Amino acid sequence: MHPPLDWLSRLISMMTVRGQLEIRCSYGAPWVVAYEDANAGEIPYHVILSGTAVLESPEPGKGQKLSAGDIVMFPHGSRHVLHDGSGIAPAPAHHRSDLNLTFSENTGTGDRLDMLCGRFILAPPHDRFIRDYLPTRLVVRTSSQNHSSQSETSTQLAGLLALMRAESNISNLGGHAMLNALSAALFTLTLRMASESNEAPIGLLALVGHPRLAPALTAMFSNPAHSWTLPELAGLCNMSRATLVRHFQEKVGRSASDLLTGIRMALAANELKKPNASTEVIAEAVGYQSLAAFRRAFSQHMNMTPGE
């Protein structure tokens, strides 16, 4: 008998997420690193091990300061720049390849930065689901949590970062595989930590701070084939239909029915990739009695047909 799964575990299990740690940056100010828009399905991330950095991205507003223990990821793959904040043009950095990792270093003599850079890679079409329900930029701070419920996750995440740092210091056999496995774990722990924050951004993560909505979220992830209605979901949460609609729009930015469709299409996409997959059987398994209705919904949501 399988144990019940929470909604975040079900979300992660729906997707194939790989972690890829690529570069460890060791810079003295002044320094600048710039990233263009990532390829589809790629989520760049950075971990500040020591020192500080200023993050600039296309989003409006001033640059955001990052400190030791901070993690920033870009679920939409947006272009961004990290720099030391001095405004001084830096000398070019040089790279050296180790057995398991590339190191980027410069000749700057100012304040030091130690930073890990990599990316999470999602198998298509799940990158679309992530773009719909996670913000363009997500910053998690492991060293400045002020709520007791966050302490355990903060400790776990700090421990994971320490392990990544130690593993990147040495050239052990199997180190590349180890770093990538730790990087994949970083994805889930970062989402968990962000969901526990009082400043969780709009999207799925914001729902965690509203436990009254948890029954609806759990129901849709646990049994997406059920023909859930708004009154049913509202009843699970002991609230009115209008209140449920308002909470979803305010916290997720989308309706409950949009989320249910997204879950169904993500699960269907997984099944359609399997050899000898039957579109009729898959359509019924995700809640569609009409094959035509399923094909129409899938094409509209995924911008491709089930056959494609």
Number of helices: 11
| Average predicted confidence as pLDDT | 86
CATH topology of the largest domain: Jelly Rolls
What does the overall shape look like? globular
Low-pLDDT residue spans = 145-150
Summarize the structure in words.
The longest helix is centred in the middle third of the chain and has 22 residues. The protein folds into two domains: 195 residues, Jelly Rolls (Sandwich), CATH 2.60.120; 93 residues, Homeodomain-like (Arc Repressor Mutant, subunit A, Orthogonal Bundle). It is globular. The protein is built from eleven helices and eleven strands. The protein is of the alpha+beta class and 308 residues long. The strands form two sheets. Strands 8-9-1-10-3-6-11 form a seven-stranded mixed beta sheet. It has a four-stranded antiparallel beta sheet with strand order 2-7-4-5, with no helix packed on it.
Structure summary:
The protein is 40% helix and 21% strand. By secondary structure, it is an alpha+beta fold.
Provide tags for this entry:
single chain, 308 residues, alpha+beta, Jelly Rolls, 2 domains, 40% helix, globular
